[in-house]
Each structure stands twice: as C-alpha cells, then as structure tokens.
Description:
Blueprint: H1 7-11, H2 41-47, H3 63-107, E1 109-113, E2 128-132, E3 147-151, H4 166-177, E4 186-194, E5 198-201, E6 208-210, E7 213-215, E8 232-235, E9 240-244, E10 266-267, E11 271-280, E12 286-287
Antiparallel strand pairs: 1-2, 2-11, 3-4, 3-11, 4-9, 5-6, 5-8, 6-7, 9-10, 11-12
Amino acid sequence: MSTHEPPADRDGCPAPTGADSPTRSAVVSAPAAGAAPEAGGAVDRGTQDGSGAAGPSGTSGGVDGVDGVEDAAASDDVPGEGGRSRSRELLLLTGVCLFVLLLVNAFVARPFSVPSGSMENTLRPGDRLIVNKLSYAFGGHPRRGDVVVFDGTGSFLRKPFEPAGLGTSLRSFGREIGLLPAGDSVYVKRVVGIGGDRVTSAGPGHPITVNGVPVDESGHLFPGDEPSNVAFDVVVPPGKLWVMGDHRGASRDSRDHLGEPGGGFVLESKVIGRAAWVVYPVGHWADLDRPDAYAAAEGTGGHGEQG
C-alpha cells in the first residue's frame, strides 16, 4: 500500500505564494514376512499350499496369496491418505495465517510506502512505514507533533463520485482493511494544530505560533526551509487538525488547501493512524517519536494532554 502524495508533491512543485493557493517424507509399510515370494515362488503358489501340497483346485491355499495382495494394497493407500491430510493441514494453516494478517492489517498496524519528499528529512522517498492504528483507537486524539497518515478526501481533495452499489461498498471495505491500495487520497503529514488551537505564521523569517507560543521546529524541518513562506492565521475547529510537511518548501499541506472542502483542516476520523516506525531501508530504521518542540504549547488550548 502506498501513502500517495498528489502529483504536485511528487513533482516537487514550488511552495505556494499565498494562503489562498492552494510484504516429506512418506511412511511406507514394509511387506510382511513371507509375503514377498522368492524366485520361482509364483509357480509354487500355483501348485502347492502352505505345506508344499497342491490345493484342491490346483491353486495355493488361498489365504497367504490373498493376504499378500491386501497388505500391498493397504501399503499403497497409506502414503496417499497421508499426503492428502498434510495438504489439508497446510491449506488450513495458510488460511489461518492470512486471516490473522488481515486482522492485524485492518485493526492493529499497516504498512505504507512514502513516494515523495514532502516529509524530508524525517521521511524520505522509498521509506516503508508501519502505521500504528491503535494509537487513537480508544478515545485518544492525535497530538501536536505526531506524524499521521490520513485520508485527505473531503479536506485536501474533493470526494470523487462513486455510484452507490455493492461494488463501491466492497472497494471501500477492501481499501479500509488493506486488501486494496489506499490510493492517491492518502497523505502523511505532521500535526501542528489540534481542535481549538489558533495557529499562525507571519511568513518568512517568523516561527509558527500555537496559541501565541512560538514553536522551535528546527529539529525536524528540512535544512534551509522556513517554517512557512506563507502568512496565515487559523483557528482549528473541534475534531479537526492542522497538518504540515517537514519539507515546507515541497509540501502541499493545510496551508495550500484553505480553499478546498474543509478549509484545509483534516477530520480526526479520517486519520488512519500514527506513523510509528520506519522499517525500510535498514539504514533508515527509526522510531518516529513526538518531538519536544511542541511541549511549550501543551495546556494552552485544544484537547491538551488527551491522546
């Protein structure tokens, strides 16, 4: 699944100029003693019984010969039955593993891929993330500084028309549990403001402020980037988020979507989870901990310490 940025993000469009811009062995029975004839045994069975005398009908006594055939047949059946049993067990085990993986993918953790540079250097193109879907599952809320993966439909993108029907419902369910690609509507950004916050910027040369408190973002901003080249002053509605990329000069984020549905604010209900770990490439393994930069703004508004 990929966490796709819009084409402009992938192409590295210039920063906007204003707030309005927008993965046997088988057991074979040994033959019973005396069951396998020695050389010439076939003629003896045809003329003698078990004591060397000819049987009444010129055949063997009948018991040994029949038993020999039955034992051979039984021996032939064992491997086949065992093979079928093992196949069923293997199929069952595979099914259980897939089911458990599906449950984990749907409700616990989900992998995503980063295609663009809008979150550099925190996240780089080609990085594989594990998103913790339980972070906000039991009454928690995203917090300032969290890196979140969310569906931008209705905030960054207009909801596409999809005819009502079973097919649409199945596709939606498949995307939700990770059976289908997430699509181009899924983004990864950092939470800067939460519901109730006033987030402002006076433009180049000035820090972002949250509820009047300047935020020192130098620890995660892309080297050389301004906190914002665009001046803005917004109050985040309850249940929504103001999000921005760490590579401010190459990120289309809440600043660029003020004119879109939702005013650039992202519904908390659209958050898929918190980006918790970078697991690939090996050289870029990392825990995506919440930076201390936003600690000064805690308790100044929004849902504060919740989450």
